[in-house]
Amino acid sequence: MSTHGHRVTVGVRCVLARALHRVPSVPLVALGLLLVGLAAANAQDLGIKAPPQAGPVTIYNATIHTVSGPTFAKGFVTFDKGVITEIGEGTPHVPLNDPGFIDAKGARVYPGLIAANTQLGLAEMAAVRASNDITEVGGITPEARAAVAVNPDSTLLPVTRSNGVLLAGVFPEGGRVPGRVSVMRLDGWTWEEMSVLPDAGLAIEWPQARPITARWMDRPESEQADEIRRSQEQIEELFRAARAYVTQKAADPATPTDLRYEAMRPVLAGARPVFITAGDIDQISAAVSFCERHRLRMVLVGGRDAPLCADLLTSRDIPVIITGTHAFPKRADSPYDDAFTLPARLAGAGVRFCIASADRTAHERNLPYNAATAVAFGLEPDAALKSLTLWPAQILGVDKPAAAGEGRVPAHGGYGSLEAGKSATIILTTGDPLEITTTIVGAYIDGRKIDLGNKQSALAEKYREKYRQQVPKPPASRP
Length: 479
Prior knowledge:
The structure is a single chain. This protein is of the alpha/beta class and 479 residues long. Among the domains are: 1-42; 57-113 and 412-457, Urease, subunit C, domain 1. It has 14 helices and 16 strands. It has helices at residues 5-22, 28-42, 156-161, 191-194, 221-251, 259-263, 265-268, 281-293, 310-315, 342-349, 367-376, 381-386, 390-396, 455-469, and strands at 57-65, 71-80, 83-89, 101-103, 108-111, 113-118, 165-170, 179-185, 195-205, 274-278, 298-302, 320-323, 353-356, 426-429, 440-445, 448-449. Strands 1, 2, 3, 4, 5, 14, 15 and 16 form an eight-stranded mixed beta sheet that branches. It has an eight-stranded mixed beta sheet with strand order 6-7-8-9-10-11-12-13, sandwiched between helices. Strand 12 (320-323), helix 10 (342-349) and strand 13 form a beta-alpha-beta unit. It is globular, with a radius of gyration of 25 Å. It starts with a helix and ends in a 10-residue tail after the last helix.
């Protein structure tokens, strides 16, 4: 992963410009490449990042949804230096004309929503390779961290924020062990400022458990089986070698340092989980057995067959990140609402879960509506809200205030619910955030007031103004 894919694009654009300047007759192919480069370079957020909180803020006359506790029908929340200091029912004393006191006028207050599984900041335009920084070179790269490749100026970040999503679990992809997951704020000047937890755990793409026999598959089953076996052995060997390295390094500190194995220390020690992407029941079972052999904490990503092995997951307290409800049935004989009912079925079986979006990077703003679909198909509304706030914070390991030295900036942390001592990462809304008619009217990340404007809202206003300026022509007079 390069640090900022858009810088590569700018370089390509400059090279093309110089080449076109020298060539009198510009080929159409070169012109097309130039336009692609210009498009990628212009995909940059020009907004100013939010400054640190300057003084105490109290939001009152609001319905406060704490998520982890009671809902205050007419409540208030006070926060200072990015931390909630007081929350409760009633109206505080409001000094005259004090800008730190905000009358919400009946709006609702919720914790900021969390997109648990995204490539936000790593991908801009799918058709422009230089703007995509999802995949590291090589199939086994545990040393790669998603955080360092996140582009703080991605235009997709403010678009996503505008619908209440303020934090994201950013996953690398590609290869069997593509790297480490990072939990990021969706605002900041640099990736360091955006990072909540740069190393939240190790991502693993689990191999298929059996050959694919669909009509479109043109590879023989024996060849597929060999590849599956090699992939499984590759993952097994990585963890055996990493544990042997840690043991050897402890016995002999002079052992040469291996960055790949060093990056795996938190996972091997149980301080961080492995995020294993698997869907079929036999994949899930194999992944659970693997984690038990290597004494690893596991989070299941995807898990379309998770209800079929619910007992296995609950007995080992393995949570599931559901990768969206807006999907077709997995198999030809599956019910039409297979994806829609997955959260309700997991909740009924007692499996811990959270809901991510099925609408990938450019459409992560649709996250709340994935949970809304689950509500329409049996999930309790309270559980749906928690699946976007408290539960992803717990699964990603950012729900509790962090002490200094745990790698989080700022040190307090604590996301997913509204409680005294936790982060003031909140949204103000006109209604239930799961409803498509609801508007987000205010947002704070660690107490910093966030600009909810974005490229899409600017373009909408631009073209509204175009039609406002058009003066209707007078009707033609008859002869």
